[in-house]
Amino acid sequence: MSNTAEAPASDERIKETSALRKALIRPELGGICGTVIVFVLFAIFAGDSGMFNSQGVLNWSVVSAQFMIIAVGACLLMIAGEFDLSVGSMIGFAGMMIAIFTITLGWPVWQAILVTFVLCVAIGGLNGFIVVRTGLPSFIVTLAFLFILRGFTIYLPQLIERKTIIGGIDKAAEGDWLAALFGGKILGGLFTWLGDAGIIAVFERGNRAGQPVVDGIPMLIVWALLLVALGHILLTRTQFGNWIFASGGDAESARNSGVPVNRVKISMFMLTAFCATVFATCQVMEFGSAGADRGLLKEFEAIIAVVIGGALLTGGYGSVIGAALGALIFGVVQQGLFFANVESSLFRVFLGVILLFAVVLNTYIRRMITGER
Amino acid sequence: MNPEHAPIIEMKNIEKHFGSVIALAGVSVDVFPGECHCLLGDNGAGKSTFIKTMSGVHKPTHGEIFFDGQPMHFADPRDAISAGIATVHQHLAMIPLMSVSRNFFMGNEPIKKVGPLKFFDHDFANRVTMEEMKKMGINLRGPDQAVGTLSGGERQTVAIARAVYFGAKVLILDEPTSALGVRQTANVLATIDKVRKQGIGVVFITHNVRHALAVGDRFTVLNRGKTLGTAQRGQITPDELQDLMAGGQELVALEGSLGGTV
To answer: Does the predicted interface ipTM exceed a cut of 0.85?
Structure first.
């Protein structure tokens, strides 16, 4: 037996893995390549259309940041092995709850926001609880909540206010400390300086003449970057992150090793709901109103961003940075097509094509990692 | 085996009934530190029920379990694990998409504190994983190599190394060689030998007599929920073991017609 005890230092049957192949196994790679390609293409075809001046950059940054916020939740949930199709409905529902609490009940905005967060995260937890308790696919459970929440979002404002859009939240939110955390802007001074220095565009006429067109970074973008950073650290650098991978990779094996799989999955459903509520709150503060149709189809856009970012639909593999890049590609293309004067319905064609491409690539990468054939 | 040592775990007259089915009808097995105790038996002999009782999954209907001389009543598998009884199942607790080091520490992640924040200590995990795997005779390409790229035998070895690292005193291996090729089987058997030399009691479940004889110190044969006795190494021939497992006569008759190839 002694001769078998020494394993050979290198196995002659395993080819040396090339650097390219090693890089391919990083989940972010697809996202990085896609981002580079997208920026190069639009720099060529829409470079002089104003897409890359301060206003244009803000335009696609905000759209990308919106995708990023919901992609972070969807990404961690997908790695934990589950889906949430109720994200879009949750966005509409959360916005409507803030509006009803503020306008109909006359609560202060900070109270309305906090109660909405608690309510929505609890609904996310309920989603997760039903999934882990019944063992049903999360696809079905959250599909049910897609309809339930959307139904309430349309029914409640009609019952209470006899309309489907509740406005006037911007007035109520004036001077509210928590509302500013979602609807405000930061670095205003920097942008004024940039405007004065002539680096970015300023208004030429009107009562704001001399002020920069872009007067700060919206809190929406700050939230997006914050959530991406925290999500990335949680996933790659903590014990809980290891549990997320394990729960999605093989729930049974994870349980055998003492990982609290149910707790991990439920908390990821709650995080997804939290992200949807952040999105909704920012949107409500920006528009000053809540509408019954807000957030439509957002669940699919979140999932597509995550898949473009290299996560496997089957769970256990993926990256928050990748999902954020997927969201960036998404935002840049959606707004870039507008700048490049391309018919906007073609965006959907692009979406379908890139989704298919990403899934095929991911399946190939999965085979490479696990050595399946 | 060291006879003057006390057994680390002693199972006395274990009976287990599932409703009207008697899965175990009085089985006694003891395991000494540093020995490899092979548990042999054909399919349905009660091997799985027995090790599940030992690892705390089932509670025995009758009989007693002594661990380090103390009577033990395991409420659930976690009790058994914290006492030092580790089980490497046929269905390995390994996740192919995750790296070896992430798998190695799954559920027991090392923590590095930075102020009030707790982080996964990757440096420590990677270093320990490489060291422990090297001790078992497996040179990894790197700690971030995915478990999916390892062979079946190497995966068994990772699972065994993990159990040993986390302080197992008794290691139960449930048919670790049943799905492996010749060379990989040899590697796993070598690993069992290494583990035994560290003073850990190994319970090796198999229905392959040759694998059992390669590393076993003692052999207990289960048949239809009963022990047919425990034999010391050197007291029994492969043919006798084979016959005991099959319950005697039938296989002998069958073997004749197959020309001694079984």
So the answer is: no
